[in-house]
Write a structure and sequence with these properties.
Layout: H1 19-30, E1 33-34, H2 46-57, H3 71-85, E2 95-98, H4 100-112, E3 118-123, H5 127-135, E4 139-144, E5 146-148, E6 151-153, H6 156-162, E7 167-173, H7 185-198, E8 201-205, E9 230-235, H8 236-240, E10 248-251, H9 254-264, H10 273-283, H11 287-310, E11 314-316, E12 323-327, H12 337-348, E13 350-351, E14 353-354, H13 362-365, E15 368-372, H14 377-387, H15 389-392
Helix pairs in contact: 1-12, 2-10, 3-10, 4-5, 4-9, 11-14
Length: 393
């Protein structure tokens, strides 16, 4: 076939099937509790589901919605950014609706990165970052978050040293998946200062903005000099537990939104028309909803962290997201988390994800395993009970 030439282009060679697909298949095959992939096992608010049903029945968005997104959702996003963070965005020129934040990241990188440009990403990183940088023809430059005092921290000197004349942008994620780190005001100020000094763009993934248990979420765009050089991404999936709806958004200056839209229109063009109306309603939910979500997940974090520690893991208590990173070395045995995670379902009926797949420097992530706690309390309690079998074995 094609004279032996590989079918997959070399930019994507090596990516293959995602670790999430592999581990989810393993959970299905073994009947294990899946704490690997980050999706809730309950749906979001009933009134928001009903809003989607009403939109469908009324014919809202059943045909192609406007390319930038339905006006109701763009207005709701702008209001959210203003009321939460004091960031004023024009819903007509500075907000773009995407098929989830993942498409927003892809469109931003395809639009803003030229072949050969360097893109700095904090590792461990969400796996689509690497693929999107590759599809854009960019060169990924990892800066490693390292364990420090029970959390993973950014070394500002290492970040500064990673910037070269070929650096185009920094791809940032805070609250950070998979480590649960929430970058501090001081860390973000340092990133902003560096971006302004070296004339860099920043694409910042803030999908866990409402899942901060310790500290606070501060959008990078709110720092001096950053509004016109930052593309901010978020989505409905993590905040409202509708991950299957794939409704996300971009906020940025008109020039940056126009650039991202130029790429986005040739990806999905539009998506989720009726769902966009429902997400507009979701963003207008009262503050008690967001407080309740945070309290509920905070309690689940505490339950799982305590259970993992009792089972013998080293636990890095997350300040945000709905993931907890653990160290398997205190358990003894293998130091290879990939091998550990492939054996875990048979050993105790739980599935997790090895962090090493989120690193360029695989040795840095070799002993770390990520568990998701966005599950029903009874599921987490059963998982904790099963994990205790590791110490008994």
């Amino acid at each position: 076939m094609t004279q032996g030439r590989p079918l997959l282009n070399r930019r994507l060679a090596g990516f293959g099937t995602t670790i999430f697909a592999e581990m989810t298949a393993l959970a299905l095959r073994t009947g294990a509790i899946n704490l690997g992939q980050g999706f809730p096992d309950t749906d979001g608010p009933e009134e928001i589901r009903e809003a989607a049903v009403r939109a469908l029945r009324a014919g809202h968005g059943n045909q192609y919605p406007p390319g930038p997104g339905v006006p109701e959702l763009r207005s709701a996003v702008a209001l959210h950014q203003q009321s939460r963070y004091g960031l004023a965005y024009d819903p007509d020129s500075e907000v773009l609706v995407t098929a989830g934040a993942t498409e927003g990241i892809a469109a931003a990188l395809l639009a803003l990165v030229e072949p050969g440009d360097e893109v700095i990403a904090l590792e461990p990183y969400y796996d689509s970052y690497a693929a999107c940088i590759a599809m854009a023809g960019g060169t990924r430059v990892p800066v490693t978050l390292r364990p420090d005092g029970g959390a993973f921290r950014l070394d500002p000197d290492e970040l500064r040293a990673a910037v070269t004349p070929r650096t185009r942008l920094i791809l940032l994620n805070t609250p950070h998946n998979p480590t649960g780190t929430v970058l501090t005001r001081e860390e973000l100020a340092g990133i902003a200062e560096l971006a302004c000094e070296r004339d860099l763009l920043v694409v910042t993934d803030e999908v866990y903005e409402h899942l901060v248990f310790e500290g606070e979420h501060i959008p990078l765009a709110s720092f001096p000099g950053m509004r016109d050089r930052t593309v901010t991404l978020s989505s409905a999936g993590k905040t409202f537990s509708f991950t299957g709806w794939k409704v996300g958004w971009v906020t940025a200056s008109p020039a940056l939104v126009s650039a991202v839209r130029s790429a986005k229109q040739f990806l999905t063009y539009v998506s989720g028309g009726p769902l966009q109306y429902a997400v507009a309603d979701a963003l207008r939910l009262p503050g008690t909803y967001f407080d309740g979500l945070r309290a509920d997940l905070g309690a689940k974090r505490d339950l799982l962290c305590a259970g993992l520690a009792e089972a013998g893991f080293g636990v890095y208590r997350p300040a945000g997201t709905y993931f907890v990173t653990t160290d398997i070395r205190p358990l003894g045995g293998t130091r290879d988390a990939v091998e550990f995670c492939r054996e875990l379902p048979e050993r105790c009926g739980v599935v997790a994800v090895p962090n090493a797949v989120f690193y360029d420097h695989r040795d840095q992530g070799a002993p770390f395993v990520r568990f998701a706690f966005c599950k029903r309390t009874e599921v987490l309690e059963e998982a904790v009970a099963r994990l205790k079998g590791l110490t008994a074995a």
